[in-house]
UniProtKB/TrEMBL annotation:
Top-level taxon in the UniProt lineage: Bacteria
Protein name: Transposase
Pfam families: Cas12f1-like_TNB, OrfB_IS605
Biased composition (Basic and acidic residues): 140-154, 340-349
Domain Probable transposase IS891/IS1136/IS1341: 76-203
Coiled coil, from the record: none
Keyword DNA-binding: yes
Domain Cas12f1-like TNB span(s) in chain numbering: 215-282
Length: 356
Protein backbone atom coordinates (compact mmCIF):
# COMPACT_ATOMS: atom_id res chain seq x y z
CA UNK A 1 0.00 0.00 0.00
CA UNK A 2 1.36 3.37 -0.90
CA UNK A 3 5.01 3.83 -1.61
CA UNK A 4 7.39 0.87 -1.64
CA UNK A 5 8.95 0.27 1.72
CA UNK A 6 12.47 -0.75 2.47
CA UNK A 7 12.90 -4.42 3.15
CA UNK A 8 14.13 -5.07 6.64
CA UNK A 9 16.12 -8.13 7.48
CA UNK A 10 14.40 -8.65 10.80
CA UNK A 11 10.92 -8.14 9.34
CA UNK A 12 11.20 -9.70 5.91
CA UNK A 13 9.51 -12.98 5.34
CA UNK A 14 11.89 -15.87 4.98
CA UNK A 15 11.56 -16.75 1.33
CA UNK A 16 13.63 -17.37 -1.73
CA UNK A 17 13.17 -18.45 -5.29
CA UNK A 18 15.19 -20.89 -7.33
CA UNK A 19 15.19 -20.50 -11.09
CA UNK A 20 18.19 -22.56 -12.05
CA UNK A 21 19.80 -25.73 -10.80
CA UNK A 22 18.34 -29.04 -9.85
CA UNK A 23 14.65 -28.66 -9.24
CA UNK A 24 12.72 -31.87 -9.42
CA UNK A 25 10.16 -34.04 -7.77
CA UNK A 26 11.46 -37.39 -6.68
CA UNK A 27 9.75 -40.45 -8.16
CA UNK A 28 8.58 -41.66 -4.75
CA UNK A 29 6.04 -38.84 -4.63
CA UNK A 30 7.19 -37.69 -1.22
CA UNK A 31 10.36 -35.68 -1.80
CA UNK A 32 11.50 -32.62 -3.71
CA UNK A 33 15.05 -31.82 -4.67
CA UNK A 34 16.08 -28.16 -4.65
CA UNK A 35 19.38 -26.47 -5.44
CA UNK A 36 21.70 -26.01 -2.40
CA UNK A 37 19.12 -27.64 -0.14
CA UNK A 38 19.14 -31.14 -1.55
CA UNK A 39 16.35 -33.64 -1.22
CA UNK A 40 13.67 -32.75 1.30
CA UNK A 41 10.69 -34.75 2.37
CA UNK A 42 7.35 -33.07 1.87
CA UNK A 43 4.45 -33.21 4.27
CA UNK A 44 1.91 -33.61 1.50
CA UNK A 45 2.28 -36.12 -1.33
CA UNK A 46 3.45 -34.73 -4.66
CA UNK A 47 1.82 -37.49 -6.64
CA UNK A 48 -0.59 -35.32 -8.65
CA UNK A 49 2.14 -33.19 -10.12
CA UNK A 50 4.37 -36.21 -10.50
CA UNK A 51 1.74 -37.94 -12.62
CA UNK A 52 1.50 -34.91 -14.90
CA UNK A 53 5.24 -34.67 -15.27
CA UNK A 54 5.50 -38.36 -16.09
CA UNK A 55 2.81 -38.00 -18.71
CA UNK A 56 4.80 -35.15 -20.23
CA UNK A 57 2.00 -32.71 -19.53
CA UNK A 58 3.90 -30.48 -17.13
CA UNK A 59 7.34 -28.95 -16.88
CA UNK A 60 8.78 -27.37 -13.76
CA UNK A 61 10.08 -23.86 -14.35
CA UNK A 62 11.07 -22.65 -10.91
CA UNK A 63 10.58 -23.22 -7.22
CA UNK A 64 9.86 -20.76 -4.43
CA UNK A 65 10.44 -21.64 -0.82
CA UNK A 66 8.82 -19.64 1.94
CA UNK A 67 8.30 -19.78 5.66
CA UNK A 68 4.73 -19.09 6.61
CA UNK A 69 2.73 -19.72 9.76
CA UNK A 70 5.46 -21.82 11.31
CA UNK A 71 5.86 -24.09 8.33
CA UNK A 72 8.03 -24.23 5.25
CA UNK A 73 6.30 -24.33 1.91
CA UNK A 74 7.59 -24.96 -1.56
CA UNK A 75 5.71 -23.70 -4.60
CA UNK A 76 6.64 -25.04 -7.98
CA UNK A 77 5.98 -22.95 -11.02
CA UNK A 78 4.82 -25.30 -13.74
CA UNK A 79 4.15 -24.96 -17.42
CA UNK A 80 1.14 -27.06 -18.32
CA UNK A 81 -1.93 -27.12 -20.48
CA UNK A 82 -5.20 -26.79 -18.73
CA UNK A 83 -8.61 -27.82 -19.92
CA UNK A 84 -11.11 -25.02 -19.55
CA UNK A 85 -13.98 -26.30 -17.46
CA UNK A 86 -17.41 -25.01 -18.26
CA UNK A 87 -19.26 -23.20 -15.52
CA UNK A 88 -22.72 -24.38 -14.50
CA UNK A 89 -24.62 -21.27 -15.55
CA UNK A 90 -22.50 -19.43 -18.13
CA UNK A 91 -25.21 -16.91 -19.05
CA UNK A 92 -25.93 -15.85 -15.50
CA UNK A 93 -24.08 -12.93 -13.97
CA UNK A 94 -23.68 -12.36 -10.26
CA UNK A 95 -23.05 -9.21 -8.29
CA UNK A 96 -21.15 -9.61 -5.07
CA UNK A 97 -21.40 -7.07 -2.30
CA UNK A 98 -18.83 -7.68 0.39
CA UNK A 99 -19.56 -6.70 3.93
CA UNK A 100 -18.88 -7.35 7.56
CA UNK A 101 -22.39 -8.33 8.64
CA UNK A 102 -22.69 -10.82 5.82
CA UNK A 103 -19.39 -11.71 4.23
CA UNK A 104 -20.96 -11.60 0.79
CA UNK A 105 -24.38 -10.95 -0.65
CA UNK A 106 -24.76 -12.57 -4.04
CA UNK A 107 -27.42 -11.27 -6.39
CA UNK A 108 -27.59 -13.04 -9.75
CA UNK A 109 -29.23 -11.88 -12.94
CA UNK A 110 -32.10 -14.34 -12.52
CA UNK A 111 -33.14 -12.41 -9.42
CA UNK A 112 -31.95 -14.86 -6.80
CA UNK A 113 -30.32 -13.51 -3.67
CA UNK A 114 -27.96 -15.47 -1.48
CA UNK A 115 -26.32 -14.48 1.75
CA UNK A 116 -22.93 -15.82 2.71
CA UNK A 117 -22.45 -15.68 6.46
CA UNK A 118 -19.32 -14.07 7.83
CA UNK A 119 -17.52 -16.76 9.83
CA UNK A 120 -15.63 -14.13 11.88
CA UNK A 121 -12.84 -16.50 12.67
CA UNK A 122 -10.80 -14.00 14.60
CA UNK A 123 -13.68 -13.04 16.89
CA UNK A 124 -13.99 -16.65 17.96
CA UNK A 125 -10.33 -16.86 18.84
CA UNK A 126 -9.98 -13.51 20.59
CA UNK A 127 -10.70 -14.84 24.04
CA UNK A 128 -8.05 -17.51 23.73
CA UNK A 129 -5.66 -15.01 22.23
CA UNK A 130 -6.12 -12.67 25.14
CA UNK A 131 -5.19 -15.43 27.55
CA UNK A 132 -2.08 -16.39 25.62
CA UNK A 133 -0.96 -12.83 24.96
CA UNK A 134 -1.22 -11.99 28.62
CA UNK A 135 0.81 -15.03 29.51
CA UNK A 136 3.50 -14.12 27.01
CA UNK A 137 3.66 -10.55 28.23
CA UNK A 138 4.37 -11.73 31.78
CA UNK A 139 7.53 -13.45 30.56
CA UNK A 140 10.81 -11.93 29.50
CA UNK A 141 10.43 -11.05 25.85
CA UNK A 142 13.01 -9.64 23.45
CA UNK A 143 13.90 -5.96 23.52
CA UNK A 144 15.80 -4.43 20.65
CA UNK A 145 16.70 -1.28 22.59
CA UNK A 146 18.43 -3.05 25.42
CA UNK A 147 19.48 -6.08 23.41
CA UNK A 148 17.52 -8.32 25.76
CA UNK A 149 17.25 -11.86 24.49
CA UNK A 150 13.87 -13.56 24.97
CA UNK A 151 13.66 -16.22 27.63
CA UNK A 152 12.86 -19.81 26.74
CA UNK A 153 9.61 -19.51 28.62
CA UNK A 154 8.63 -16.48 26.51
CA UNK A 155 9.56 -18.33 23.34
CA UNK A 156 7.28 -21.17 24.33
CA UNK A 157 4.39 -18.88 25.24
CA UNK A 158 4.86 -16.88 22.05
CA UNK A 159 4.81 -20.06 20.03
CA UNK A 160 1.52 -21.06 21.63
CA UNK A 161 0.06 -17.66 20.85
CA UNK A 162 1.21 -17.77 17.24
CA UNK A 163 -0.42 -21.15 16.82
CA UNK A 164 -3.81 -19.54 17.43
CA UNK A 165 -3.12 -16.87 14.86
CA UNK A 166 -2.00 -19.50 12.38
CA UNK A 167 -5.10 -21.54 12.94
CA UNK A 168 -7.36 -18.54 12.40
CA UNK A 169 -5.49 -17.68 9.22
CA UNK A 170 -5.76 -21.25 7.96
CA UNK A 171 -9.49 -21.39 8.65
CA UNK A 172 -9.94 -18.10 6.84
CA UNK A 173 -7.95 -19.22 3.81
CA UNK A 174 -9.98 -22.40 3.64
CA UNK A 175 -13.38 -20.75 3.73
CA UNK A 176 -12.39 -18.00 1.28
CA UNK A 177 -11.15 -20.55 -1.23
CA UNK A 178 -14.33 -22.57 -0.87
CA UNK A 179 -16.48 -19.49 -1.39
CA UNK A 180 -14.63 -18.17 -4.42
CA UNK A 181 -14.37 -21.57 -6.08
CA UNK A 182 -18.07 -22.17 -5.59
CA UNK A 183 -19.00 -18.81 -7.06
CA UNK A 184 -16.72 -19.15 -10.05
CA UNK A 185 -17.81 -22.70 -10.85
CA UNK A 186 -21.43 -21.59 -11.01
CA UNK A 187 -21.67 -18.16 -12.63
CA UNK A 188 -20.43 -16.89 -15.96
CA UNK A 189 -19.83 -13.25 -15.08
CA UNK A 190 -18.86 -11.97 -11.68
CA UNK A 191 -19.09 -8.31 -10.69
CA UNK A 192 -17.16 -7.15 -7.67
CA UNK A 193 -16.51 -3.77 -6.19
CA UNK A 194 -13.13 -2.15 -6.21
CA UNK A 195 -13.01 -1.65 -2.46
CA UNK A 196 -10.44 0.62 -0.93
CA UNK A 197 -9.30 -2.07 1.48
CA UNK A 198 -6.11 -0.26 2.40
CA UNK A 199 -8.14 2.76 3.35
CA UNK A 200 -10.61 0.71 5.35
CA UNK A 201 -7.76 -0.84 7.27
CA UNK A 202 -6.74 2.64 8.35
CA UNK A 203 -10.08 3.05 10.09
CA UNK A 204 -9.47 1.81 13.60
CA UNK A 205 -13.11 0.93 14.14
CA UNK A 206 -13.35 -1.22 11.04
CA UNK A 207 -9.83 -2.52 10.59
CA UNK A 208 -10.04 -5.74 12.58
CA UNK A 209 -13.29 -6.89 11.03
CA UNK A 210 -12.21 -5.92 7.53
CA UNK A 211 -8.90 -7.69 7.88
CA UNK A 212 -10.63 -10.77 9.25
CA UNK A 213 -13.08 -10.88 6.36
CA UNK A 214 -10.31 -10.76 3.74
CA UNK A 215 -12.04 -8.56 1.14
CA UNK A 216 -8.94 -8.02 -0.92
CA UNK A 217 -8.21 -11.72 -1.07
CA UNK A 218 -11.76 -12.54 -2.18
CA UNK A 219 -11.44 -10.23 -5.14
CA UNK A 220 -7.99 -11.54 -6.04
CA UNK A 221 -9.17 -15.15 -5.96
CA UNK A 222 -12.32 -14.42 -7.93
CA UNK A 223 -10.25 -12.75 -10.63
CA UNK A 224 -7.68 -15.46 -11.10
CA UNK A 225 -10.16 -18.29 -10.78
CA UNK A 226 -12.28 -16.60 -13.41
CA UNK A 227 -9.43 -16.87 -15.84
CA UNK A 228 -9.41 -20.58 -15.14
CA UNK A 229 -12.98 -20.84 -16.42
CA UNK A 230 -12.39 -18.23 -19.15
CA UNK A 231 -15.11 -16.11 -17.59
CA UNK A 232 -15.07 -12.36 -17.18
CA UNK A 233 -14.66 -10.50 -13.92
CA UNK A 234 -16.02 -6.99 -13.89
CA UNK A 235 -14.62 -4.64 -11.32
CA UNK A 236 -16.96 -1.79 -10.58
CA UNK A 237 -15.36 1.57 -10.28
CA UNK A 238 -14.39 2.56 -6.78
CA UNK A 239 -16.65 5.59 -7.03
CA UNK A 240 -19.67 3.74 -8.29
CA UNK A 241 -22.26 4.25 -5.56
CA UNK A 242 -23.56 0.68 -5.36
CA UNK A 243 -25.02 1.11 -1.90
CA UNK A 244 -26.47 4.57 -2.41
CA UNK A 245 -28.20 3.86 -5.71
CA UNK A 246 -31.71 2.46 -5.81
CA UNK A 247 -31.72 -0.88 -7.63
CA UNK A 248 -35.30 -0.29 -8.73
CA UNK A 249 -35.41 3.22 -10.19
CA UNK A 250 -31.76 4.30 -10.23
CA UNK A 251 -32.10 7.30 -7.95
CA UNK A 252 -28.96 8.03 -5.97
CA UNK A 253 -28.96 9.09 -2.37
CA UNK A 254 -26.49 11.73 -1.32
CA UNK A 255 -25.73 10.05 1.98
CA UNK A 256 -26.24 6.65 3.51
CA UNK A 257 -24.64 6.11 6.90
CA UNK A 258 -23.07 2.75 7.64
CA UNK A 259 -25.49 1.95 10.43
CA UNK A 260 -28.49 2.20 8.10
CA UNK A 261 -28.96 -1.46 7.33
CA UNK A 262 -32.14 -1.00 5.29
CA UNK A 263 -32.20 0.98 2.08
CA UNK A 264 -35.29 3.12 1.60
CA UNK A 265 -35.65 4.89 -1.72
CA UNK A 266 -36.97 8.43 -1.57
CA UNK A 267 -38.06 8.39 -5.20
CA UNK A 268 -39.95 5.10 -5.60
CA UNK A 269 -40.38 3.94 -2.02
CA UNK A 270 -38.38 0.74 -2.38
CA UNK A 271 -37.45 -0.83 0.94
CA UNK A 272 -34.67 -3.38 0.74
CA UNK A 273 -31.77 -4.73 2.72
CA UNK A 274 -28.80 -2.44 2.18
CA UNK A 275 -26.39 -5.13 1.01
CA UNK A 276 -28.97 -6.78 -1.19
CA UNK A 277 -29.60 -3.46 -2.91
CA UNK A 278 -25.88 -3.02 -3.53
CA UNK A 279 -25.52 -6.54 -4.92
CA UNK A 280 -28.46 -5.95 -7.28
CA UNK A 281 -26.83 -2.78 -8.55
CA UNK A 282 -23.61 -4.62 -9.22
CA UNK A 283 -25.28 -7.36 -11.21
CA UNK A 284 -27.09 -4.71 -13.25
CA UNK A 285 -23.66 -3.35 -14.09
CA UNK A 286 -22.76 -6.68 -15.70
CA UNK A 287 -25.78 -6.50 -17.99
CA UNK A 288 -24.84 -2.98 -19.03
CA UNK A 289 -21.28 -4.03 -19.72
CA UNK A 290 -21.91 -7.23 -21.67
CA UNK A 291 -25.04 -6.67 -23.72
CA UNK A 292 -24.03 -3.21 -24.76
CA UNK A 293 -26.95 -1.42 -23.22
CA UNK A 294 -26.40 1.59 -21.08
CA UNK A 295 -23.48 3.91 -20.99
CA UNK A 296 -20.93 1.21 -20.36
CA UNK A 297 -20.64 0.58 -24.09
CA UNK A 298 -19.92 -2.36 -26.32
CA UNK A 299 -17.58 -5.25 -25.76
CA UNK A 300 -14.72 -3.55 -27.50
CA UNK A 301 -14.34 -1.08 -24.70
CA UNK A 302 -15.03 -3.05 -21.57
CA UNK A 303 -15.07 -0.08 -19.26
CA UNK A 304 -17.72 0.23 -16.63
CA UNK A 305 -16.43 3.37 -15.08
CA UNK A 306 -19.44 5.57 -15.69
CA UNK A 307 -22.74 3.74 -15.56
CA UNK A 308 -25.57 6.20 -15.08
CA UNK A 309 -23.04 8.90 -14.33
CA UNK A 310 -22.98 8.02 -10.68
CA UNK A 311 -19.45 7.95 -9.51
CA UNK A 312 -16.66 9.78 -7.80
CA UNK A 313 -18.76 11.38 -5.18
CA UNK A 314 -16.33 12.35 -2.54
CA UNK A 315 -12.68 13.09 -3.09
CA UNK A 316 -10.84 12.73 -6.33
CA UNK A 317 -7.54 11.14 -5.42
CA UNK A 318 -5.26 11.20 -2.51
CA UNK A 319 -3.34 14.48 -2.69
CA UNK A 320 -0.01 14.07 -4.39
CA UNK A 321 -1.06 11.05 -6.40
CA UNK A 322 -2.42 12.74 -9.48
CA UNK A 323 0.17 15.48 -9.50
CA UNK A 324 3.00 12.96 -9.68
CA UNK A 325 5.53 12.92 -12.48
CA UNK A 326 3.80 10.25 -14.50
CA UNK A 327 3.49 8.14 -11.41
CA UNK A 328 1.66 4.87 -11.12
CA UNK A 329 -1.75 6.29 -10.30
CA UNK A 330 -1.74 8.68 -13.24
CA UNK A 331 -0.05 6.56 -15.82
CA UNK A 332 -1.69 3.23 -15.17
CA UNK A 333 -5.28 4.38 -15.39
CA UNK A 334 -5.17 5.68 -18.96
CA UNK A 335 -7.64 3.50 -20.83
CA UNK A 336 -5.65 2.91 -23.98
CA UNK A 337 -2.60 1.86 -22.00
CA UNK A 338 -4.57 -0.47 -19.83
CA UNK A 339 -6.16 -2.18 -22.75
CA UNK A 340 -2.75 -2.94 -24.16
CA UNK A 341 -1.67 -4.54 -20.91
CA UNK A 342 -4.76 -6.67 -20.62
CA UNK A 343 -5.06 -7.30 -24.31
CA UNK A 344 -4.67 -11.06 -24.03
CA UNK A 345 -7.56 -11.57 -21.66
CA UNK A 346 -10.48 -10.14 -23.51
CA UNK A 347 -13.16 -9.58 -20.94
CA UNK A 348 -11.12 -9.31 -17.86
CA UNK A 349 -11.91 -5.72 -17.19
CA UNK A 350 -10.10 -3.70 -14.65
CA UNK A 351 -11.27 -0.16 -14.61
CA UNK A 352 -8.99 0.97 -11.86
CA UNK A 353 -5.33 0.37 -11.31
CA UNK A 354 -4.87 -2.09 -8.52
CA UNK A 355 -3.70 0.11 -5.71
CA UNK A 356 -3.48 -2.65 -3.19
ZN1 LIG B 1 -36.08 3.88 -6.13
Amino acid sequence: MGVPRRKLKRKARLACRFTTGTIRIEPDGRHVTLPRLGTIRTHEPTSKLLARIRAGAARILSAAVRHERGRWFVSLQVETTREITRVDRPDVAVGIDLGVKHLAVLADSSGEIRYEPNPKRLDGALKLLRFHSRRASRRQGPDRKTGQKPSTRWEKANCERNKIHHRVANLRTDSLHKLTTRVRAEYGTVVVEDLNVAGMLRNKRLARRVADAGFGEIRRQLTYKGRRYACPTIVANRWYASSKTCSNCGATKAKLPLHARVFTCDACGLVLDRDENAARNLVALAAACITGTGVAGDQDTPRVSKPRGANRQTRRQRPGHHTGRGGRAGGASLPHQRRKETGDRRQDTETQPALW
